[in-house]
Amino acid sequence: MKRTFITLFATAALLFAAKVTTDYDHKADFTRYHTYTWMKAEAGSPLWPDRIKNAVNAELSKKGLTQGGAESDLSLTAFGSSHNQPRLTTFYNGFGPGWGWGWHGFGDTITYVDEEPVGTLVLDMFDTHDKKLVWRGVATDSLSDNPDKNEKKLEHGVADMFGHFPPKPRG
Predict the structure, then answer these.
(1) 167: closest CA among 63, 67, 55?
(2) At 128, phi and psi to the nearest 5?
(3) By Cβ atoms counted within 10 A, which residue in 47, 73, 95, 131 is the most buried?
(4) b/e map of 84-108 (b: 16 or more CB within 10 Å)?
(5) What is the β-pairing status of strands 19-24 and 133-142?
(6) Residue 39 neighbours by CB distance under 10 Å
(7) CATH of segment(s) 18-164
(8) All residues at 6 or more sequence positions from 78 whose CB lies less than 8 Å from its CB, including other chains
(9) What is the pLDDT of residues 37-81, one digit of tens each?
(10) Sequence ranges of the domains in the chain
(11) Which residues contact 4 (CB under 8 A, 6 or more apart)?
């Protein structure tokens, strides 16, 4: 029983955690970036671009960057999208004879396919002066029917994106 509970808890934690990846130009000197401006933020709903900007602005402020005008060091774009992803749920019952955690024989298996709404945010940072992409963050998470929950997921995903920002110089 204890093992089953731990497995279910670990699985639930994974299901509710956003998948976040980041990449950056390893030659870029992030110590020279102090200001940023927004070029564009788009999402499926007109309510979300401001929410995306607010979440990103809050994290960049924590990192010491300030929002500026057209001559800022960095230019940002964000694109939010959603799609339905198939989710398979399989149930096993009617295990045959056996003992403990060992082999129990064959039984019935039922698999259900549900559509799970998934949201993705892609955030790009360009060096304003040479127009080169210097950093990209991508966050993907399941969506709720509750917009407030989705906004919290956005905030957590963006916070995770900036967990190791600015990147340390290489070499």
Answers:
(1) 63
(2) -60, -35
(3) 73
(4) eeeeeeeeeeeeeeeeeeeeeeeee
(5) antiparallel
(6) 14
(7) 3.30.160
(8) 40, 41, 42, 43, 49, 52, 53, 56, 121, 122, 123, 124
(9) 999 999 988 999 999 999 999 999 999 999 999 899 999 999 998
(10) 18-164
(11) none
